[in-house]
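Translate sequence into structure tokens.
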Amino acid sequence: MTVIYLGLLYTNEMIENRERYSSYGLQMAPHVFQTNLLQGFENNGVEVKVLSVPPIGSFPKNCKKLFFKKEKWGKNNYQIPYLNLPIIKWFIQEKKILKEIKKIIKENNDEDIRIVAYSPYLPFLNAIKEIKKKYPFIKSNMIVTDCVPGRGDMEKYMTKSAIRKGNIVVKLAKNVDTFALLTKYLADTLEIGNKPYVITECICNENQKVATAKEKSENIFLYAGSISKEFGVNTLVEVFSKIDNATLWICGKGDSEESINYVKDMAKKHSNIKYLGFVSREEVSELTDKCDFLINPRTPTGTYTKYSFPSKTAEYMMSGKPTIMYKLEGVLDSYDNYLNYITATDPDNLKIEIENIINSDYKKLQEKALQAREFMLNNNNSQKQAQKIINIMEK
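Result follows.
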């Protein structure tokens, strides 16, 4: 089997020089998920040819680069060339992707080809539609990690333009044969009916090292992710401004200047709150070694949370450090034994819950954290998750 993978990946050069491309930072969670998945295909002996475009905004507002050239990196990874202008780039990408897919099909000269696309990105969906017209025997799979625009209840997904885009996505998705979803609820937003799908809520990086074990002393909590009020960051900061015997480290960026400014202001006023800005994965690993707890303040409010499995949950669990988070609808019950749930969404009661965690038996929390890592390695390793997608395309 040969898999043609349509991806949203960064080249190594983009990661090393991220500030040249985007003032908002790079979306590393999708990149990591896809990198792990591709490793899983390789571990299963599947040949994968990657056709990718970077998940970067358009020139000049959201990206400093106007033109992306064709570029090879890694073993079989190719970046599609295109002019990085709004809307125009979609048509160019679709045309280039179609050309490359047809070329690969001719080179293989057989029917044992599958197409896997990451996310319902319009150039990918249109390319699959056109390929299915000429090669109906080629099966396709689409990985869906987020709510379809115009569905859910987040304001930014419910604008008129988002609803129009969502309707197009749903229509084009009918040309896809199978799906890999982060949660079962995403099947409803795609309106896929009886089409087969598998749940691949996350893919752990087996090479992620265990964080350095240490005696709890300073009660350091680390949050690494998007800075946004809707993700509970503002409330978390407010809570720690009222706790004397714990420290909160926050690193990351986001598109909410209001939240970022709030975090910065609170860090100036309270010595136990430290905002570290956007840091590399290596630096996050170093911070994880030094902290006592990993926390994700994203609350379960709103229906949108059932469409999501936060990538940081997998990374937190793989670290071997105690993970503090809310129970989200998109998180399967099988994770409950390995996570430390908080429930309060108001600052006063959340403060009480965090103080209870601080005063609990840390050795037992560490034991649970190491069991969480074993759970991830056994159930969500890259080879096992990739095999799910392979199997569903074989039926």
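Note: The radius of gyration is 22 Å.
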